[in-house]
């Protein structure tokens, strides 16, 4: 399931980067800020996904020891 989350987060980050770029080109500060916010949200979501993956890895290692 993490693979799907990774793809969604990467897509959201790319969309934010594009929005920020559009804001830079058009000199639109609001659009630029929205793009930066979208990227930050995607990075935070990816961090949560990474923590979940690590927790599953730890749980799996305990199950393997039995």
TrEMBL record:
Pfam family, one: CsbD
Region feature Disordered, mapped onto this chain: 1-66
InterPro entries: CsbD, YjbJ_sf
Signal peptide residue numbers: none
Domain CsbD-like residues, every copy: 5-56
Coiled coil: none
Composition skew (Basic and acidic residues), residue ranges: 1-20
Family in the record: Belongs to the UPF0337 (CsbD) family.
The protein's name: CsbD family protein
Organism: Curtobacterium pusillum
């Amino acid at each position: 399931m993490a693979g799907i989350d990774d793809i969604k987060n990467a897509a959201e980050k790319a969309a934010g980067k594009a929005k920020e770029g559009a804001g830079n080109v058009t000199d639109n500060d609001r659009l630029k800020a929205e793009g930066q916010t979208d990227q930050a949200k995607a990075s935070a979501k990816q961090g949560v996904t990474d923590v979940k993956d690590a927790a599953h890895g730890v749980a799996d290692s305990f199950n393997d020891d039995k």
